[in-house]
Design a protein that fits this description.
The structure holds 2 protein chains of 2 kinds. By secondary structure, chain A is an all-alpha fold. Chain A has 15 helices and no strands. Chain B is built from 9 helices and 12 strands. The longest helix of chain B is centred in the middle third of the chain and has 15 residues. The chains are: A mainly alpha, B alpha/beta.
Amino acid sequence: MSASRSTGSGLLAVLTALMAVTAIASIRFGAIDFPLHQMWTATGAIVSGHTPDTLDGRIFAELRLPRALLCLFVGASLGVGGTLMQALFRNPIVEPGLVGTSSGAALGASVFFVLGTVLHVDAGPWTLPVAACIGGVLATWLVFALAGTGGDGRASIVMLLLTGLAVNALCLSGIGFLSYIARDPQARSIVFWNLGTLSGATWRSVFIVGAVTTAGTGAAMLYAKQLNALMIGEEEATYLGVNVRRLKLIILAINVAIVAVATAFTGVIAFVGLIVPHILRMLRGADNRFLIVASAIFGGTLLSLADLVARVSLRPAELPIGIVTSVVGVPVFLTLLRRRRYVF
Amino acid sequence: MVEADGVTFRVAGRELIAGISARFEPGKLHLLIGANGAGKSTLIKVLARLLPPALGSVRYGGHDVAHETDASLARRRAVLSQAIEVAFPLSVREVVAMGRYPHFGARASSEDEAIVGEVMDYFDVTDMAERSYPTLSGGEKQRVNFARVLAQVWRPVPGRERVLFLDEPLTFLDIGHQLDFMKKVRATLEAGDLVVIGVLHDLNLAARFADRLLLLDRGRLVAAGTRDEVLTRDHIRAAFGVEPVVTMVPGTDRTHLIFE
């Protein structure tokens, strides 16, 4: 009884099954549908190293499958990032992009879209993710540099929150300016990227995002107990033997890594990081030992579902996924808030 | 034995406590009294090693507490602080179980779970074990935190003293729970290896339950000792700016202070 209470293994199994079903549906349906038996044979062919020769086979192997996997990993990063930041800031309305990571990444990508063509920077497959990642890390660094200058150099949570808001606004105005001076196709790229898209999924992005997400989630799980203690207060956590300053640095570093890398490949995807931890807390409370793993699984599930909707609702065209996550996310979020009456 | 040796703590050049030296013995209840801003909570935080003293040192069992690791300290020193709010739906059982966090790695042992059960029974919070902490009343939250803090130092630690700090533990409690709590704190002293240091505002309750009283006034320790030594008319007038009327509790030899 108490073992299942502390790990929530039953609910984790249900969530995993849900993720598998969603992932299979998201591979099966799209501009072209793949019947299940065709999915099996095509997957078998990829595993045994065959290069598909039909158009359908290539769509499956080079577009559909990597996209489905990228969805799972990006959703997992956003879910875990949301859980970590909400526990760290002791505030349930915090998003993983709060400390400037996502908006900085978006600004980095916008700079690349506009200046890349002007300055003839090589537009190889790496340039966009690298520009976004640099933007995300720089903006996060700026938030901490500005928040940490007062007092003893330790950034207080409130200072971080407010400085994050300011730097986010700064990045948004930078993106606005770049969209304004951009020529039409570049401006369109910026808009698309700011709404998030998984259409650029490749096996390389799957491996990179997958490795960073898995490593980050695993590392975060080592600190789940300490994060629990932090939820009752920084002083209390210190009295329980937690080195709060070190914990904050580690959790923020994990969050920046997973969110910057995910955002770098897919653009800004709103609301997933916010609502995933909320829904899971309603199901089984706020114990981070359960929440971190569960938000990885459920974040992936939710983003897969959103991507499926984005691809089939206007087929053969597709919606930017950020529109889907916002349209679904906002009402869910508001309903949750009204029902739960969180204490702020 | 907890010892403070010439402890001074400053914030922005201002001394919140200055040159405080005191000894706190195991098996005894020590209560700090004093007006608002006298430095009681600051002294608790310095003694509990949350704040490092600018001058002087704090020793547990003869060893400077600055050198002890966070993990080792947390297994034998617990602190009840004031008004703990949580923005997330944590169950009462989970909050109490946090008291055992310093004692286990990834997973609680059966002993840890047994202790959580014992302290929840001891503080009468077992029937709210599955309730969500943010939904509790102020007094209920306070009792849950007693249970959490006691769980942290529930069992003796071989070869070392345990230290328990209570910063205004009676806030939010009705009179019945106040007396109940003070009696339970006194009962924990019987193990003999526990040093208890608290802050109390009610001078009569402090006099009734403390073995030693320490009176702070504007960051300085002005008196320490038994209630008769500390709660004199002069001390109270100087520290609180009020004139006490001393009466006797009928049928006992204890004094009771009335303030007009």
